Amino acid sequence: MRSARRRMVDVAFVDDETGSPADDVRSGAGAPGSLGPPSPPSDRRIAWNRGARRWWPAAVGLALILVTTSVVAEQRERDRMADLAGVPGVVTTLGDTVTEKWRTGDGPYSVLGTSTGLLIGTLDRADGSEAVVGLDANSGNPIWEVPVRPAGDVTNATQCTAPTEATQDPAGVDVVVCVLAAGTENETATAAGDPSLPATANLLVLDATDGTVLLAEPTDPSTTVSSAGPNLVIGQVLSDGRYQVSRRSAWDTPARWTFTTPEPLDVDEFGHRSAQVFATGDLVQVESWSMSTGGGARSSWVLAADGTALRSPAATDSGGYGVGFTVLRHGQLLVASGSTAGTAYATLTDLATGSLFRVDASPFDPWPDDGSLDSLILAHSLTGDDLLAHDLAAERTLWTVPSPGSSGAMVIDGRVIWAEANRLVSIDGRTGETVWSTPINKPSTATDQSPASTDESSTSTHTYVSASTSTFTDGRVVLLASSDATRPLRLAAYRLDNGVELWESTLPTGVWLDEVAGELYGQSEHGLLALG
């Protein structure tokens, strides 16, 4: 019986880490004298597939990370835009251009406010008549109209206000309140001129939704009205010369409070007393000027939300005028202006903390302001050549940058953006470092679409050197409106993040832009343009 013979051969192991046989065996496989046959092609595919099974989860994970990051960024941007939509002064999302949705043609229309899909304003017609008109905000069609001045009566004057928020009376009625002055009362002429003062006046209250007259009664010709959010503020000179201010939750409710000046107002050269009342946030201001050929006097009061006087008239400064007050930050900051030896200054008081400091500059509120730089106060230098930022907590100037010719600024996402005569600038509000700067004056071809123009195809090429500029934003772009009053209004949109110009458009000559409740409108002597 023959014994079984065994043959010993080399064995090639597949390395799980590499998916291939050991190098020393692979190099000899299939060669003459080698003990093993060549590896079939399928072995390599199997090894590659094993490697693929190890890296494809990483690729999928990377893709998921990228998708998740994109989704998170998009959601963050949606949240940001939703937050900005509630910021006063921020307009609705702008497209690739600004187009006209509708226009009125009866004459200048001054927007007072909005109410349930209506624009509320006063319309001055060419024949001298005036009316309070409610327009459909979507079409511009008049919904109601109440005449307040007849044609040809140039002696009548109208002052109207509409609450900026829904009224809080039990009926929930939005109202328009007007003081209609009529007739004239001629005073004795002096070196200051020959004045014509109102002889009589009426207080008119309208339902803003349909124009129904809710009240029409005589009032003193000195009466002024203003809105304080949902409240109504009324001021008038009393028979003894003192000034009385009352704040009401609604036109037909008792006054929440009443304030009367301790002393009569100063009189002007004609023996006349007058004052204006207006509100910022919860604070109400009273300003009285009495001008004369020999100079003048100024009396200012600032009243708190409960009607108590936070500030009262102080001694006049070296110029002969009293100290005036400005309320900033929606009623959180009080600014008192003054001068010493001919040098102007401002004293700032934080009403929340009581801290007080002085700046040799002119503070102002940015518009719009998303609150991302609430610790800073912006101010123009007294020469008007620089923009300064003051740190409220540290009570010091944080930075100063050149800003010749600028008149205001906006604050969005921690950046301060403003327009100068030749450029649009964005800086980091925390450091003062320039983020971007874009030239804005350049040759441009524009078509004059003015209603007064008979040639609709007339074009002109010119370089805009604007007499005035204004800026608007929807949170993604900065819209610059440049006007020199004699040419079409030039509009240009720039990216908020880098200043790159996206598009350019024009509006008719004589139009200037305004923002009302987040919508853009063009104002002119010919009428109102709704833009979108």
Automatic annotation (TrEMBL):
Question: Which organism does this record belong to?
Answer: Pengzhenrongella frigida
Q: Which Gene3D superfamilies match?
A: YVTN repeat-like/Quinoprotein amine dehydrogenase
Q: Which InterPro entries match?
A: PQQ_rpt_dom, Quinoprotein_ADH-like_sf, WD40/YVTN_repeat-like_dom_sf
Q: Which domain of life is it from?
A: Bacteria
Q: Where are the transmembrane segments?
A: 55-73
The entry's protein name is Pyrrolo-quinoline quinone repeat domain-containing protein
| Positions of the Pyrrolo-quinoline quinone repeat domain | 389-507
Q: What keywords would UniProt list here?
A: Membrane, Transmembrane, Transmembrane helix
Where are the annotated segments for Disordered? 1-42, 435-462
